[in-house]
């Protein structure tokens, strides 16, 4: 990012307008703020009593109904060894077990390293890190209207995000480049984040092998800096989105990616993606309790794999039109779920991640 | 709104699909909720210390700089009699004077009566009353795009608002019908609210005479019900938007309307309309202190005219692009001003009104 002063200029010349522009650009890049440190208070929609009730209900879900861990013998084995009640692929947890495991070793906050150390982000506490949108299969342009995204779009979004001082993170699946075959797509996606940005980025989760590829590429990128000289352990240079298959199911793809990242000390955002009314109860309270149960089980598994691996409690909740079955955005209930889940994450002592501030314009501002 | 049962049906017939539809419509109208009673807590962005500082600063503005009351000898006379320091059209207020006047007689909450008593709204306390947008000169339609509004649009918006169960109030200048001459426009606007809705409405404020016309039309509409038989005083059947001419100025038009409504025991929303950076300091704190000062002076004047006349502390704040001078919407600062002003209104003990939840889609959802 810095201008390399040339000791031997090719030819002597007076400062030009171009020089001034470059200088202005450089000065601007130095005004970049790597993340927000919040000074404003939390909005607490529920008091202690309400939050305790949700934690109690989440424990009831974990104890009585349990969570399915599908097609993943290792996870079942880890749970059995930890003292959970495993029958087939259904795992039931004694009250408080998942919470205890998480609180024993998960960090309250952690640094995600970036290629450019000035862009390192601290995740957790009173910091807010903004990242671009995740997972859109479509893009919209003035010339072509709405169409499936391609890798060229992906690269452009990474470049735009790199230029946006209000985005502290390069994100992950900034759009889904469907012009590339699925089994090789992740190479180009991760490489785009590496090549066109020096902000922190997210890794591939669509197959455990692709998670390992992401880790390997990141190890090459960071070189010696990948390892913390003090601890000898890998630094956290990747954060990745692990979605539950709600209701109450973790599948082999996501479990495999979760374990691969946790083993390498990379961060995971353990996130039930819930359309309330279809994948959870339609109520705010029911959705919050289920989200907490699913997320607790996922975060606890990461701690069983590698105690101390950074985990983030994630929540994506939206509502469903009970008339048409279509997802709806910008309604009040998901906003309440978000506030409640953030409060539950603070009580648990882990960072929180969500989207938010969705509104309902005729054309979504995404 | 009720189906009048006909004792002598024109001809005997079996219930038709049309009957079923009418019955369903009638049942729906009974599901109407006249206003929201909030169960969720306030979001307090400032503690007591911060709010006290803003109140102190507002008092400093009122005491040292003062407020202009332009072209309105009666207002100046009222202030002089109340003990303010009046020099020319500039009025300066001893510390705490405006607050004391407001707190002495302004109601903490009040009922605005509607033609249909089921649509009466309680304004203040933990109630939220939703009203449609106010003052748009333009409308947008699929056929015609963006164009100036006409009285036919006004009528249509009143009808749509009447049908919308989530809007508890018919609003006022729901759009500006520019096809009618200004000096007679208010008759058609108020009449539209009276004819096409039975929800509560807002009055004309563009001239004191037009405020008096609004009161007279409302008196005709309500008939005997306009007067409270217990007190012999007019019921509050109109609420009207009184905008300060920020910074620090009240003009004769708004003062005349304010006094006309206050004398008739009708409610006023005393609202500095501020584009921060042009009409107030660019900071949240400066804008909040100025808004409080201007609003306090206006509400206190209403109490001097008629102690006990309902007043609402209003705040409209937006920011200005310091690059282009254009108003900007959906930025964080006005949201903070809104939260702070609502907290200041609660401390003062009057209801609060604002717009809000503005976002920045490419096409405003208004």
Structure commentary:
The structure is a homodimer of 366-residue chains. The two termini of chain A are 30 Å apart. Chain A is 40% helix and 17% strand. With 366 residues, the first copy, chain A, is an alpha/beta fold. In chain A, the strands form five sheets. In chain A, strands 10, 11, 13, 14, 15, 16 and 17 form a seven-stranded mixed sheet that branches. Chain A has a four-stranded mixed sheet with strand order 3-4-2-12. The first copy, chain A, has helices spanning 17-30, 48-65, 73-82, 97-105, 151-163, 182-196, 208-222, 252-263, 284-305, 332-348; strands at residues 36-37, 67-69, 85-87, 90-92, 109-112, 121-124, 127-128, 138-141, 145-148, 201-202, 238-244, 249-250, 267-276, 311-314, 316-320, 327-328, 352-353. The first copy, chain A, has a single domain, classed as TIM Barrel, CATH 3.20.20.480. In chain A, helix 5 runs parallel beside helix 6 (182-196).
